[in-house]
Automatic annotation (TrEMBL):
It comes from the Eukaryota. It comes from Aspergillus felis. This is WAC domain-containing protein. It is found in: Nucleus. Pfam families: WAC_Acf1_DNA_bd (PF10537). Keywords: Nucleus. The keyword Nucleus applies. InterPro entries: WSTF_Acf1_Cbp146 (IPR013136). One of its GO terms (cellular component) is chromosome, telomeric region. Residues 14-125 form the WAC domain. The keyword Nucleus applies.
């Protein structure tokens, strides 16, 4: 070991160049410059907003800002049930996924409401999902005179179907909701699903699309399932083990 004044010589560390936004590390300056030139091209797109003609860094900042806004604005009560039903869905295009969820989530009970949200089943079909609302969700209350009041779901009670001894249906399954009437302080109402709907102003297709793209991913191969991002799936305790028949190369 070479000494200087009886102490080992301390070598200078090898110089490196770092791109903080991506955590990429370069030991040679030329590849670093090439990579920076690539990122500075105005050819990148913000996935959430769809804005194009951005540098990589501009698109990244846009996605981070929009991501925070989307998750903040999206109704908390709908996050888990929607993500849970998207998990493992094989609808190919995000726009089709948005249409499926949005239309069935906002459909009125005037049609005798049976709603189908995308969900995985072994046969890879849609799982029937009746119109449902969740504690903490903002809703519109529909009065008999067509007046609409703003409300908040406070609690929900499910009632199983009842059948006669011969097996014929006596009463279908249903739910009742304790709703706080926001337009009338200190007033609550016990309502069924016929008198509740979602406010399209607080649950739009654009908002839903941004929420999906912000929290769900899908690989590019044909038939690939949608997967909730691992950290989000862990937060809501959503299963992450992809069924074997949805692995690449196993779908017919």
């Amino acid at each position: 070991m070479v000494l200087f004044k009886r102490k080992p010589v301390q070598y200078l560390p090898r110089p490196v160049w770092v791109i903080p936004e991506t955590n990429e590390v370069f030991t040679n300056y030329e590849p670093y410059l090439q990579r920076m030139d690539f990122y500075k091209q105005k050819r990148f797109i913000c996935e959430i907003t769809g804005h194009s003609g951005l540098t990589f860094f501009e698109a990244l900042r846009s996605e981070m800002e929009e991501s925070r806004e989307v998750n903040s604005a999206f109704p908390d009560a709908l996050k888990e049930p929607i993500l849970r039903r998207i998990q493992f869905s094989t609808v190919s295009r995000v726009d089709n996924l948005v249409d499926e969820i949005y239309e069935v989530s906002n459909r009125r009970v005037a049609d005798d409401v049976h709603l189908d949200l995308p969900s995985f089943r072994p046969a890879d079909n849609w799982q029937e999902f009746k119109q449902d609302f969740y504690p903490g969700e903002p809703v519109l209350i529909l009065l008999e005179d067509n007046t609409r009041l703003h409300g908040m779901i406070r609690d929900k009670a499910n009632f199983a179907e009842q059948r006669y001894p011969d097996g014929t249906l006596k009463t279908p399954a249903y739910a009742t909701y304790l709703v706080k009437v926001l337009d009338r302080p200190n007033e609550e109402a016990l309502l069924d699903q016929d008198h509740i709907t979602r406010d399209r102003k607080t649950f739009t297709k654009q908002m839903l699309r941004a929420f999906i793209k912000n929290n769900v991913t899908r690989e590019s191969w044909n038939g690939a399932p949608w997967l909730v991002k691992p950290s989000i799936a862990e937060e809501y305790k959503i299963p992450t083990d992809v069924p074997k028949n949805l692995h690449q190369g196993t779908k017919k």
